[in-house]
Amino acid sequence: MTLDRGRQAASTMFALSAMLLLSGFNCLNGAHAATKVDDSKGPVFLKEPTNRIDFSNSTGAVVECSATGNPPPEMIWIRSDGTAVGEVPGLRQILSNGNLVFPPFRAEDYRQDVHAQVYACMAKNQFGSVISRDVNVRAVVQQYYESEVNNAYVIRGNAAILKCSIPSFVADFVTVVSWNDDSGNVYQYLGNNIVIQSYEAEADNEYVIRGNSAIMKCEIPSFVSDFVAVDVWSDSDGNEFYPGDESSLVVNQYYEAQVYDVFVIKGNTALFKCQIPSFVADHVEIIEWVTTDGQTYGLDDSFDGKYMVLPSGELHIREVGPEDGYKSYQCRTKHRLTGETRLSATKGRLVITEPIGSKAPSFATEAMMMGVRTASNTSTVLTCQAQAYPVPIFRYGVL
Ligand SMILES: *[C@@H]1O[C@H](CO)[C@@H](O)[C@H](O)[C@H]1NC(C)=O
Ligand SMILES: *[C@@H]1O[C@H](CO)[C@@H](O)[C@H](O)[C@H]1NC(C)=O
């Protein structure tokens, strides 16, 4: 016996079930009970078989039944009339653990009294017995069958129902698991009226002007769109982009930064701007300026040289002289999310104009409207973009 011999704390529940279930209860004699700790108990099911067991002759079946008690109960299988069931060689076995076994059998060995029978499992020791619910055992000899689908006639636009006809002799044991069509589509019933349908999502070509942003769409057929979400975008280079991932959302779009020529009167200040397309501007920062003579100017350089890179990324050149006109200027940008750095596609030249006569100071239009907003304890640079000849004197005032 492999039954649990461990002592279990006496519980009121057990006492109750013992009272209800025990027939022919043998009362301990009073003197005994008083002098000994009474850990004896009638059987209780640990595993009770289910009400119906259907199986095929090719698979066979094991009907499990186990119970505990002290002493460990004896397991007996009985028929509905209460008579004990015995072994039938090759067709029915009773294991010492209480399990009832129906081995696979040949069609000609089918026996109604074995293979189509109502059984019950009984556990008993001297303190009582318990009987399981009825177990309807039904063995089916595997039989060849074909199911059929008949033509359905339907007026265009109406709903059609196709039926799968299953021969009645197997109908109890056969269920429709899926519908398949000629094109290889598979339809499955999932419960809740949800049907698994095969579908294809499409990503169409998108046409976009270079440098502009593009949105790729995943077209999901409407009949599954409630249940289908985009998991990942992948490109032919093997990159994968996940929805909700910020770096993915940017989808590593191609962009070009541009630097335009700057016109300046000799001796004045020039300001080069690195133009970044707005669709990536949030993710791209200017890290340095490069001149054709190989000089680089970074952001962290000091603010008081002739060349300085403003926190906003512009290159500020003071007191422009003819030597500044011989080189051109490019900005180098870095994509914060992808980490990629890139030189601007165009180089800006400094076009130095010789003063002709005199010119009163004038601001570049955008400089007039410039507002600066900065964290309270960070340093910033205020520029005063005005040109004149003679070179103007600047004075900053606090309003
Ligand atoms: C079960 O019955 C089918 C049909 O007669 C037979 O082909 C199959 O071999 C049987 N299975 C076993 C294990 O004998
Ligand atoms: C501002 O100054 C405080 C105190 O020195 C410091 O803790 C904080 O990090 C500074 N903030 C910035 C944006 O530098």
From TrEMBL:
Cellular component terms per the entry's GO annotation: membrane
Segments forming domain Ig-like: 43-136
Leader peptide range in chain numbering: 1-33
Superkingdom of this protein's organism: Eukaryota
Keywords: Disulfide bond, Repeat, Signal
Protein name listed in UniProt: Ig-like domain-containing protein
Lineage, top ranks: Eukaryota, Metazoa, Ecdysozoa, Arthropoda, Hexapoda
